[in-house]
Model the fold of this input.
Amino acid sequence: MNKKTVLLLILVFISSIISAQQHSAGFKDAGTFLRISKQQDYGLSVTRLIIDLGEDSIINEKDILADTFTVTGTTDSGKPAPKIKGINVTDVFGDKVESGRYVTIDLDFGLETDSDTGSSYLVTLNQDIGAFKKGAQFLQKGRTIRR
Done:
């Protein structure tokens, strides 16, 4: 290879590294959540989402309103995404606390909603809270936990 080709390859490599770093930095405000499922008469249903806001985001119960988050389905099952029944600041297990880094969303589940364990959800923040800005999106992390 001549020098121009080698320099061009090095330049492309460096550009791709910089681009990848900028792309991952764009998702820095997005957090993750765990899905909690429970056995019902008709099968397993996702009943809760536990969002991890991270170590640097400690929030108080009074900072959370009924419309703080929106849950939407990411697949078209023909059923509507489950509605939010309640939102609380909790510990990692979903038990209510006055302040913490976890938010638990209790879902209204049933046969008429898309609450089976095969569904996936996207949680969107509707207001600024802690280090997160309105519009931040939270994605599922890992598998569904069965309780």
Remarks:
- Residues 52 and 141 are 10 Å apart (CA to CA).
- Confidence is low (pLDDT under 50) at residues 20-29.
- Helices lie at 3-26.
